[in-house]
Request: fold
Amino acid sequence: MDFTNKNVIVTGGASGIGKAVVTGIVEGGGHAIIVDLNLEAAEKVKQELGVDQVSVYQVNMGDSDNIRTVFHQILKDFGQIHSLINNAGIVSTKPFEEVEQAEWDRVIAINLTGVYTAISVIYPAMKEKGYGRIVNVASVAAKRGGGLLGTSAYAASKAGVIGLTKAVAREGAPYGVACNGVCPSLTLTPMTANMGEEKMQRIISTIPLGRGAQPKEIANMILFYASDLSSFATGEISDVDGGVTMDG
Reply:
């Protein structure tokens, strides 16, 4: 996919799905801007993919003030951001009755409020330029109410992301700003690597394709929405889940 002369922010771009997205942007001739808490891992990706093709900023996606400060700096440094990919997130796996207030607040802060805050900084600049592609990574948990890996707090946060995606799409459409969402199921990333074989197989048994996704398989859909190939799509929530959801 062609990202020539495009500046693309990827939150959580230092590993997993985010790293696969960053790789696709660089391969498409674009400039990837990694926003991640793990600066060391982000710098490693930068060295791996090319120091001229990748920039790195450290951000805590659970801290709205930090997000605003850094994202305003990114706008100042680059002038125009063509695509924003909200990929960073954390999972919560506790049963509902065991979810404590602190965990609920943290999951909502990073997975939903962090997405809102990032968009709220970048959206006005996209609107002013008359062009923007925003892609939010949600989850099948948002549609199913959990049941695979993430549970109530996670499902609620990602369901909020879906609602936010549609609202931004509706308001941004007259100004050339598209906003779409992607819902993965089990993806073989560092976040899921330590769940244990028994739990892994239990989840895989619910996926019609019979396996977890490689990060690149999720990244391909994200990259599509971040590119001009999706020029007539906005407000769309696409399942990339091996057949788990199969909704109409």
Summary: The beta strands are 7-11, 31-36, 54-58, 83-86, 132-137, 177-184, 237-240. The chain has a mean pLDDT of 96. The helical segments are 16-27, 39-49, 64-78, 101-129, 140-144, 152-172, 197-204, 215-226.
